Design the sequence.
């Protein structure tokens, strides 16, 4: 098989690398990808993810067996619909199904209709009305841009003033452009969060190993929300019975509901969940692999990823098996000041030569000497699989401490919650 992966980040690096592990795969192309992927034998394609016609022509010209969509934006722009119309196989949800991520309000409405547990909410496009609601409800409270905001459109406000500032930024200040022309205001939920991803084809669900992401920028879950500063899988403090309950009360009902609504889902469904004192609740759904969860979940897959996708696309029953022992942990290295304005151009470590750890590259480019330099907020992730969380932490953090990382920062507490079990 020859496979095309659409996207450019660490998530797509992990997907492409795992696809290449298959003895059935001859070549993996990534559009556009990033130069950090080249060391793994991945071929880069200079076509932007929003150039559907160019990607379709490339797939035809190169006899691509099928295409895998990594990020959310092309899904919401209808790339699956366009490839399907061109009679090309592609793995991901249609534009209609991707609305489960593209509109928080749509997701809330479908959850309410099919009695899927989630936080109490109200949707607003008027700042005065939203402000009045916040004053009535009080803090803490959660403000979410209705549309996509690259993982940064959520403010957990612990004071009324903070909530009203967030509302003003989004509704009056056009912070996320069209994505924040409408906001969803939710009750604040307390509990243990985890991510449950699944391969989905219609009403068929094949769950993955669960993971826990770290969204806040700084140690101790302080600072602004980011796209994710690290993750680990599995999550020992979440028992299997809770995962089973999540599948039966949340994941299966949502995919069944989407079939009934005429927007059947095929692809990767991400359920961001929280175990509260009142039971399990949904924080969000995404229509694709999470980042950085992908980088710690896929290394635990012991069956053939390419074969799984191929089976799902061809209506066959896939074999999905997971590593049962140990833990996989990844730490994101980001540009200083991320997720605010940050510098670019800093030189990356020339070679991570520790066999115990794996780098996945995201926001990188190359300089005139062909060296990797920073070109984004989240620059790379370092990942290790070990017998326990302490060993995995030691392997990753020891390697990071060896490197010269001027102009970068990373959290030093990824995985700490797993030690409490």
Sequence:
């Amino acid at each position: 098989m020859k496979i095309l992966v659409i996207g450019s980040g660490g998530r797509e690096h992990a997907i492409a690398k795992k696809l290449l592990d298959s003895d059935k795969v001859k070549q993996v192309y990534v559009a556009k990808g990033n130069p950090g992927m080249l060391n793994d034998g991945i071929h880069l394609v200079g076509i932007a993810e929003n150039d559907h016609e160019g990607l379709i022509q490339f797939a035809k010209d190169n006899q691509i067996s099928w295409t895998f969509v990594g990020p959310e934006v092309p899904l919401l722009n209808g790339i699956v619909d366009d490839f399907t119309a061109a009679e090309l196989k592609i793995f991901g949800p249609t534009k209609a199904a991707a609305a489960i991520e593209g509109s928080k309000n749509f997701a809330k409405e479908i959850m309410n209709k099919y009695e899927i547990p989630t936080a109490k909410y109200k949707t607003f496009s008027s700042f005065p009305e939203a402000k009045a609601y916040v004053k009535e409800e009080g803090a803490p409270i959660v403000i979410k841009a209705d549309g996509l905001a690259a993982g940064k459109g959520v403010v957990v406000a612990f004071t009324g003033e903070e909530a009203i500032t967030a509302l003003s930024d989004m509704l009056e200040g056009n912070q996320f452009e069209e994505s924040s022309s409408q906001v969803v205001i939710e009750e604040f939920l307390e509990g243990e969060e985890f991510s449950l991803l699944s391969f989905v084809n219609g009403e068929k669900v094949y769950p993955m190993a669960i993971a826990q992401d770290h969204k806040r920028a700084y140690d101790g879950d302080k600072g602004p929300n980011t796209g994710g500063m690290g993750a680990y899988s599995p999550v020992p403090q979440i028992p299997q019975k809770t995962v089973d309950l999540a599948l039966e009360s949340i994941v299966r009902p949502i995919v069944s509901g989407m079939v009934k609504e005429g927007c059947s889902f095929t692809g990767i469904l991400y359920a961001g969940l929280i175990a509260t004192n009142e039971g399990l609740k949904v924080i969000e759904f995404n229509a694709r692999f999470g980042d950085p969860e992908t980088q710690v979940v896929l290394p635990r897959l012991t069956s053939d990823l390419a074969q799984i996708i191929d089976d799902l696309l061809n209506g066959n029953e896939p074999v999905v098996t997971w590593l049962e022992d140990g833990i996989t942990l990844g730490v994101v290295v980001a540009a200083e000041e991320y997720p605010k304005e940050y510098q670019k151009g800093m030189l990356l470590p020339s070679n991570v030569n520790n066999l115990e750890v794996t780098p996945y590259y995201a926001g990188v480019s190359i300089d005139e000497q062909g060296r990797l330099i920073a070109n984004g907020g989240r620059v790379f992730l370092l990942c290790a699989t070990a017998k326990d969380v302490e060993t995995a932490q030691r392997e990753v953090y020891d390697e990071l401490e060896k490197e010269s990382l001027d102009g970068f920062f990373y959290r030093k507490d990824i995985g700490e919650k797993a030690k409490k079990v």
User: Anything to note?
Assistant: The chain has four domains: 2-94, 126-181, 191-313, 327-420. The chain has a mean pLDDT of 94. The chain is about 30% helix and 30% strand.
